[in-house]
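tool=predict chain=A
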Amino acid sequence: MLTRPRFKDYVMARLVIMAVVIFLLFTVVLNFIIKDSFTFLLIISLLAFAFFLFIYAVARGAGGMQNELVTINTYLTNLENIEKVDYKTNFFTQEFEDINQNLLKVLQKAKEREDIKQRYNAKLKLKNRQRADMLSAIAHEFRNPIASIMGYSQTLVDDSEIPKPLQDKFLEKIYNNGNKIESLLARLMLWNKFESKETTLHKSKFELDSLAQSVIVSLKDKYPKREITLLSKIYSIEADRTLIEVVLKNLIENALKYSKKDVKVSIKDGLVSVEDRGVGIDSKDIDKVTKKFYRSGTHSWDNSMGLGLSIVKTILSLHGSKLEIESIKDKGSTFSFRI
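tool=predict ok
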């Protein structure tokens, strides 16, 4: 395969051939015109030296232009690995300078497109990882209640002589696990609305203490052996009642799940706090527990499906508030927000 010459080699080959031909023509012509040998040799020597200087100057210029073009080509070749385009030079002809500047513009735009492509790929990888985490979390959370429902149902079907009290107990287990699945689905659907930006606030004026009391009553039916204390005076706010109810329910139920002792809820001057004396959260995990799909490597802190506190954080953000977490490992946690 024919190899194309380099820029400098091409220019110098043409230039040397032309210089030699012109020099020989001058030599022949001067040989007929000048009869004195010394004068002839002097003129020919000066002419040869002039040609040499001219060829040397052109060679230097062509070499410089070749080096600059090689540098630009190197940038274009290694575009994906270049962090920043920082290249300036000046050619001695305006045409080459214009070409150089235009190439730099093309190079900069290509780099910008590459950066956009890399950011898009990074976002796509993050979305795929989140989707995989979501499927894993859903499978993990749904496995136990479904297995319980199937187990208790199969027992009732296989043994028709099970005592009535035991049947009622099994049916209650089935009902509770069904409620758990419904709760998980509702949480998942709410998260999906937040992700798709479909959620809008429907604000109304209501008494926050009354809402907290109704949430506590509903949770006491689910946790009949637990004590939940509410310390509050009448306090009215304007917010999305349904979403604030989700916040309170998530925070209080988390406290019930991860604490075997009493849970205290207080509302004072717009500051809502849910305090427990449970397992607590390791200091290195506090900033992580509100992230989507976050699950601790231990069983001491299991943010159900990794969405509960993430949903709380999003709802509070929509209301211009934020979730504050104070926790000491093995001593307890306090979740609070101001609204």
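Residues 94-158 form the longest helix (65 residues). The chain has three domains: 7-81+88-110, 125-195, 203-338.
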